[in-house]
Specification:
Elements (H helix, E strand, L loop, with lengths): L3 H12 L3 H13 L4 H21 L5 H28 L6 E6 L7 H12 L3 E4 L6 H11 L3 E5 L6 H14 L4 E5 L10 H4 L3 E3 L3 H9 L1
Parallel strand pairs: 1-2, 1-3, 3-4, 4-5
Length: 214
């Protein structure tokens, strides 16, 4: 469990750019054997969404937002020894997922966390990064033949790029299931599931975990 006071302490340190103290908090939580999904949802995602909101309302600079993003992405490295230790100890399910950010979308921490959640649940998870050109994404899907594709978008003005990616995937892989999510949906666009067949909007990491279990 992450208390509100601990979250506020972490957020303050994050906005101050205090990477060392943020790492201390994360490591202490890992030492207490916190569930990785809880760490991702209640500390990383919650703080990044708040920082994104501050940026959207011009409360912090682009440089500050980039600093916070870089620190958060680096902190994921503290999680990986435990994540892969657990993954190795669990049987895989022989299913593969490819996770990508929409074209022009450079915020990739959310996509990385989604890929990690799949990995925790026994999937072969491939995260192909930020701002992946659509044609390269299609080639990768053709080569890897995943069971599922996930697309992440963090900034609302990249929603047209997300839709272009969805249209391209659906046009080339008619029966491939697609998940979409990310902070951009806080500003609209959740109707996207009705516009592109076989596409599911995932509003949270909890919902993602439920979908994986179904």
């Amino acid at each position: 469990m992450i208390t509100e006071s601990l979250y506020q302490e972490y957020l303050t340190l994050l906005l101050e750019g205090n990477r060392r103290e943020c790492a201390r908090i994360v490591q202490q939580l890992l030492d207490r054997d916190i569930e990785i999904k809880t760490l991702y949802a209640d500390l990383f995602q919650k703080s990044l969404y708040e920082v994104g909101r501050l940026w959207e309302f011009n409360k912090i600079s682009v440089a500050k937002e980039h600093l916070v993003t870089a620190i958060s992405e680096g902190l994921l490295n503290l999680v990986y020894p435990r994540l892969f230790d657990k993954t190795v100890s669990d049987a895989g399910n022989d299913r593969k997922v490819v996770i990508s950010c929409a074209a022009n979308e450079f915020h990739q921490v959310g996509g990385k966390m989604v890929a990690d959640i799949f990995e925790l649940n026994g999937w072969d998870s491939q995260f192909i990064g930020a701002n992946t050109p659509v044609d390269h994404m299609l080639t990768h899907i053709q080569d890897e033949k995943p069971d599922l594709v996930g697309l992440s978008v963090s900034v609302y003005f990249n929603m047209p790029a997300l839709k272009a990616g969805l249209a391209a995937i659906r046009g080339n892989f008619q029966h491939l299931d697609i998940l979409v999510g990310g902070q951009a949906f806080n500003w609209g666009g959740t109707e996207i599931s009705r516009q592109y067949s076989g596409t599911t909007y995932v509003p949270s990491l909890d919902r993602l975990t439920s979908l994986i279990a179904e």
